[in-house]
Amino acid sequence: MISALMPTYNRADLAFERGEGVWLVTADGRRFLDFGAGIATSSLGHNHPHLVAAIAEQAARVIHVSNLYRIPQAERLAERLVGASFADSAFFCNSGAEANEGLVKMIRRAQHESGHPERTRVICFEGAFHGRTLAMLSATGNAKYLKGFEPAVEGFDHVPLNNLNALRGAITRETAGVLIEPVQGEGGIRTADLAFLRDLRATCDEFGLLLGMDEIQCGMGRSGRLFAHEWAGIAPDVMSLAKGIAGGVPMGAILARESVARHLVPGTHGTTFGGNPLACAAANAVLDVILAPGFLADLDRRARLLWRGLERLAASFPEVFVDVRGAGLLVGVKCAVPNAEVQAAFQAEGILTVMAGDNVVRLAPPLIVSEAEIAEALAMMERGARRCLPSASKVAAK
């Protein structure tokens, strides 16, 4: 008999009663270091006093009113995001998939209203993950995810990541824009080369295409800068955000230049829940922390400590790990043994991680993780790695 909760996930047999910073605690008192952060979503960790206070205060006033009325919390959040980014305007929604749907709509609408109705196709990249809606499954292009949900939604073409020749070869008179994750999360923490991102920006300008960035997982400070594309010194025309934007409260956002955003007039797009007072109060609280002077610079410093520790770990256990990849506090360890085995070994030592494609174990701790907690995590992962060694190697490693 099917469970009351649809069986769409292979859930670990863990249920958490409460959280404390970067720790999660089960009802029977077991403590786990949370280096998954709800899939890069609990950006300020658990029970962060500033975030909790902002949510409680707003919930006691008004939670939801709909976008039929002004929402001062959303207006303030939009002004702050615009002031800290390339964008001129923001749209708030509920999730990353919804943000990406809106992003693609904006690209198509802007091309149509600019005299190019034939430009409807979007070039995406192999290894991407843009969401679970029908259109975003098609933008993702992974046959495993699409199986049973065919036919794929038309309008998406796919090329290898970091291959400029393939990208240029895919451009036709029907191409409207490009959608890229600066760091592919689900795809195995594969990073776009900074030179490729710069060339991609130049190519879009050359052909009159709109550049869309999916920073749902790598944005909001996770890379060590507010947005990951900043490392390349370029800016998109439109960008999707979600996950860590509101510290765990469901929320997504689309940021866009005026040349794109001005075409979304009343009646062209909408949302019932998106940008409501509660979600925006949470997102403003997250921004209070991330935009505080010195926070991102210190995050980058702590992330480099984690990276160097992981490189030492990979070098010490070549039978278990192949390499380390990623940016900031979105790091992947490619495994030489099944990543499910490594994740289970880490969990047995008390650290929670998330599997990703390309046989990678993903680490995405809360942005507030301390040096001491990074050191503790590395010690747990070293013990976990020993669990994954062949028996003969385990004896030699003692």
Outline of the structure:
The chain is of the alpha/beta class. The chain has helices spanning 37-40, 49-59, 72-83, 96-113, 134-140, 143-146, 164-170, 194-207, 258-261, 277-290, 295-316, 339-348, 371-388, 391-397; strands at 16-20, 23-26, 31-34, 89-93, 121-125, 156-159, 175-180, 183-184, 190-191, 210-214, 238-241, 252-256, 321-327, 330-335, 351-352, 354-356, 360-363.
Task: Quickly give the structural class.
Answer: alpha/beta
CATH class of the largest domain: Alpha Beta
Overall mean pLDDT: 96
Report helical residue fraction: 25-40%
**β content, as a range?**
15-25%
CATH topology descriptor of the largest domain:
Aspartate Aminotransferase, domain 2
Main sheet attributes: strand count, strand direction, barrel closure? 7 strands, mixed
The number of distinct β-strands equals 17
Quaternary form: single chain
Count of helical segments?
14
What is the count of structural domains? 2
Report the C-alpha radius of gyration, rounded: 21 Å
The CATH architecture of the largest domain can be named as: 3-Layer(aba) Sandwich
Strand order of the largest sheet: 4-12-11-10-7-5-6
Uncertain regions spanning at least 5 consecutive residues: none
The backbone outline, from C-alpha atoms, is globular
User: What separation lies between the terminal Cα atoms?
Assistant: 47 Å
CATH H-tier superfamily of the largest domain: Type I PLP-dependent aspartate aminotransferase-like (Major domain)
